Amino acid sequence: MTNLSGLTTDQLLRIIAIKEVIKKLQGQVDSIVAGGDGAGTPSRFTEKAPKKRRRRMSAAARARIAAAQRGRGTKAKGTGAKT
After folding, report:
1. pTM, to two decimals
2. What is the pLDDT of residue 1?
């Protein structure tokens, strides 16, 4: 690795810009090697994220939620027993 401590800010910014171009081009090369046309997204971004599992809820929890929703509905309508 090259010693970067003696470089000016402009030189460092130019190095960063060149590295970004290299990264973009490497992505295009990877895409072509993977069988794409090179114009799309790089292959490292096309991998799918792992599927999230659905959370399960017990029947009792569903009943509590339904009862709370019914309670809010009757309170909003102004009907039902007053406590």
Report:
1. 0.39
2. 59
